[in-house]
Structure prediction request, 372 residues.
Amino acid sequence: MNRKTRVAVLYGGKSGEHEVSLKSAASVLRYIDRERFEPVPISIDKQGRWQCHDLRRIEATNGDSLPIPTDSPMIRLEPQGGHTAILPADNAAPAIAPVDVVFPVIHGPLCEDGAVQGLLELAGAAYVGSGVLASAVGMHKDIAKRLAALAGLPVAPYLALSRRDWRRDPAGSAKAAQDKLTLPVFVKPCNMGSSVGVHKVKCWEDLGAALDDAFQYDTKVLVEQGIDAREIEIAVLDGDPPMASVASELNAGPQHEFYSYEAKYIDQDGASVDLPARLGAEQMARVRQLAIDAFLALECSGLARVDFFLDRRSGAFYFNEINTLPGFTAISMYPKMMEASGLPYPALITRLIELAQERHAERAGLKTDYAG
Prediction:
């Protein structure tokens, strides 16, 4: 009898989206196929400490968010005979059984921006999602837009500002924005998700305060052209070719200027969702193809959610951003869009683990030296 595949469910992380990750991971543990997989809960706390937890203890809480018990052993990862060993950080205790796949259910900087992915590469791990390059590019809104534009995707006008330039010449930076863009504009940290630090600016006098706040979260900030637009999302699942879900549309509640952090996570009536989005057949086909184009252009693997603006006046789609490790609770948009496209949440988890194993096996077959 073949043993179950051991899957490290990695959650937490040192980002502003730590709490979202705890919810995503709780859903994965609840719905993962226990006939095929043996989950191993591994957390990264807000201080960056890695710990391995007893599954029964974690499940006993039965909450919407996974806990991080402080007395669980701290660990490190190490490649070992085609698997990834989980070793106690102080070598004082015996090694935990190796894992076959890591499922990083973590979001935000230092989690989905290539940092953790690089560590997992060094540990020889098969892992769910994109590799170092696509993870880093996907998190960096400026570079993602540049590459998307080079690949022919439509991108709305924007200006990227560094904190250094803003501090050196705030008047010049503000003038550059006014010369290139028209009100309203959106100010966004370049490397944050979940609408953290995002501001809608309707008069230029408010630009400075919005930039000051956004620069608390990142050293580069985007000032984007505001468009009277509908927000359209697509879930993409890797494959040959990749599969694009039906689109969904996010509608911020009338009490919110846009789909802000508060609308997403705090206000229960902050937004409504149309799934599928109210699009014509031609529009639906176009945005699904654009999502696949973005997935391929940015070298993504496994999964990604691709977000677009649909201009209400012109009917044009604009690439907004790509999220390589989107929220993954059972009611998050990525799983819901996949479910609406015929792939239920438990089957989605299984397919992502299979894709991770396939990608790892393919890369393991590549030559690592030149034999002449």
